Amino acid sequence: MAFSRAFIASFIALASVSTAACSSSETPSKESIDSYESELKLSGIKYLGPISDGETRTAYYSKSSGSYRSYGFEAKGGDEISVDVTSEDGDSMGWITSTSNTVYAANDDASPKTLDAKVVYKVPAGSASRQYRIVFRDYDRLAATFNVTLHVTSSTPEPPPTCSYGGKTYDVGATFKSTDGCNDCSCGTDGNATCGTKACVCDPDKEPNRNYIGTPASCGSIRYTCRTGTHSFKNDCGCGCEQN
Q1: Which long-range contacts (CB under 8 A, 24 or more apart) does 210-213 make?
Q2: DSSP assignment, residue 195?
Q3: Cα(210)–Cα(164) distance, rounded to whole angstroms?
Q4: Of 2, 34, 114, 210, which sits most exposed with the smallest number of CB within 10 A?
Q5: Contacts of 49 (CB under 8 A, 6+ apart)
Q6: DSSP letter string over 105-153?
Q7: pLDDT for residue 36
Q8: Residue 209 main-chain phi, psi, to 5 deg
Q9: What's the whole-model pTM score?
Q10: For 212-229, what is the mean pLDDT?
């Protein structure tokens, strides 16, 4: 027999009052939802796509189209994950799992006064960034609509990327001359420097800031070290050291 969400909520409230009034009796509790891991690995889980930090997605659940529903997201070491699974007409159950359905955290009722679930998990420090799953269903496997909200808090935010080029470090968006002296470079958001490829016109006799050590033919086979205050360069005329 299916009961309405309002009836179930009233039953929970009544059970809570009865427990407080009669300490010798205990309210029967639902089985631990952590024990569902083996079932998750064997049951049908319908993947509904990705969910982003701060996003709420809505899904209709019915057992006829799979025992569970899931959304995917990415997190890294140190991230604190909070998932709310709410419903106006169902009894929410929620899990945070790996893509292979290993359970990391689970929740049925966020408090004695609600049938909504709140699942909380902190990714162990040092863990590489990878995919996780939010798995959910109705406790009684009855048809219901669920709202799933994801929040990911990074306790150790990553430093902004920089580019290393020609012995110097540049911030993202910075522009600078390439070591050939004629092309322009820029520091991209991926931390890599991108430089132009136009042919350079050079004249060693008119470049007092440069000390040519090798020719284009020999630059690939010689080794040299630039003194402090200079850095290496290479262009169509050869290679050597130039002033910073």
Answers
A1: 210/181, 210/240, 210/241, 210/242, 210/243, 211/240, 211/241, 211/242, 212/237, 212/238, 212/239, 212/240, 213/238, 213/239, 213/240, 213/241
A2: E
A3: 21
A4: 2
A5: 71, 72
A6: EEES-SSTT-S-EEEEEEPPTTPPPEEEEEEEEETT---EEEEEEEEEE
A7: 76
A8: -80, 0
A9: 0.54
A10: 87
Paired tokens of 117: 């679930």
Q: What is the pLDDT of residues 25-72, one digit of tens each?
A: 333 345 566 677 788 877 778 999 999 999 999 999 988 767 899 999
Q: Looking at this protein, which amino acid is placed at residue 141?
A: R
Contacts of 107 (CB under 8 A, 6+ apart): 33, 93, 94, 117, 118, 119, 120
- 67: amino acid identity, one letter: S
Cα(175)–Cα(173) distance, integer angstroms: 7
Give tens-digit pLDDT for 109-166.
Answer: 999 999 999 999 999 988 999 999 999 999 999 999 999 999 999 875 667 789 998 8
